[in-house]
Amino acid sequence: MNTSCVKEDLQKALTITERHISNEDNLPLLKGVFLDARENRLYIRSTNLDTGIELWIPTKTKRKGNVVVPVKTFSSFLSTVSDDRVLLDVKNGNLLITTPSTSTTIKGYISDDFPPFPIIKKPTSLEIPDINLSKELSGVVIAASSSEIKPEISSVLFSIQKNNIKFVATDSFRLAEKTLSFKHNQYHSLLFPFRHIIELIKILEIFPSSLEVVFDAHQVIFNGKTFSYFARLRDASFPQYEQIIPTSFSTEVTLKKINFLKAIRGASVFSGRLREVCFNVYPEDNLFEVVTKNSDIGEYANQIPSKITGERLSINFNYGYIIDGINQIISDDILLRFNGESKPVLIQNPYNANYIYLAMPMKNI
């Protein structure tokens, strides 16, 4: 190997690949990153056998070759380099790194033993266009459970239908669903551990791209313009969530997003350990009130002029869940839709229903 590249490109690639190494001390090879220089590209690969990433950056390659080196050592060294370009070479199985001002050698592993990138046999594939997918998925993954006690809710569902694709997550206290227009002639349901989707989001934030999704019953590969990301699918059944999404409502409130956020953040100062806030809805006055009190601190109330239809209501929520939902709405206005004090609130953009967020109320406060 003899190849040179921009240091910043290499650092970005290592930031991602470092997240997919193994933490097992008895597998030192999987703590490494596979470097393969060919055709004026440097292919960089890592895996923990559950997920894996291969991406490439442009280089000037004089001689092809490959090597595996400890990624943490490699990344830490690059962070100390002030030069813009680096030259990578291999000698006696070790990686030589040279810049105009520095040089170092990092001991390598035997590259022939590094696991190859998986090949999916009898795959199904589909194309997802470049639609700021990292942002779309971020609005859904917030509702997934971080606990593996119930794997089916520590997951993100890709529900692929004829005219759309839906991304869905729930932790049983809240639910988020994003619907994107999508032309596909088959129906598929893919369930991912939520941590795998978080990794996909991080990859797309650094390397925005359209995606080719290649999968079978057990695994999937996301192919982007400059990367391939491998992950295993969840062997579980996602809850039948559609039945809990209401289709009619007894009370609807439309209010300014900025006013709503300020009111909830003000209430959070006075909320107790359960993070509770109360919403009072007064249709006759077109007023929406955010209230909370704490015997040790004091109490808070904020009335917001709103457009309200339906019944009067008083209902309690965890303010953290509500803020998470509001922050995903791209609109100056927020629509809150209620069905009584024991049913969830549906939060959405009044002018676009492709994202919905449900939060369950708090009881017995």
Main attributes?
365 residues; alpha+beta; DNA Polymerase III, Chain A, domain 2; 3 domains; 9-stranded antiparallel sheet; 6 helices; 26 strands
Task: Report what the structure shows.
This protein has helices at residues 7-17, 71-78, 133-141, 194-206, 257-270, 319-326, and strands spanning 2-6, 32-38, 41-47, 51-58, 60-63, 65-70, 85-91, 94-98, 103-106, 124-128, 155-160, 164-170, 174-181, 188-193, 211-215, 219-223, 227-232, 251-256, 276-282, 287-294, 298-305, 307-310, 313-318, 333-338, 345-349, 352-359. With 365 residues, the protein is an alpha+beta fold. The relative contact order is 0.11. The longest helix is centred in the C-terminal third of the chain and has 14 residues, at 257-270. The strands form four sheets. Strands 14-11-12-13-26-25-24-18-22 form a nine-stranded antiparallel sheet. It has an eight-stranded antiparallel sheet with strand order 6-2-3-4-17-16-15-10. It has three domains: 2-113, DNA Polymerase III, Chain A, domain 2, CATH 3.10.150; 124-241, DNA Polymerase III, subunit A, domain 2 (DNA Polymerase III, Chain A, domain 2), CATH 3.10.150.10; 245-359, DNA Polymerase III, Chain A, domain 2 (Roll), CATH 3.10.150. Helix content is 17%, strand content 44%.
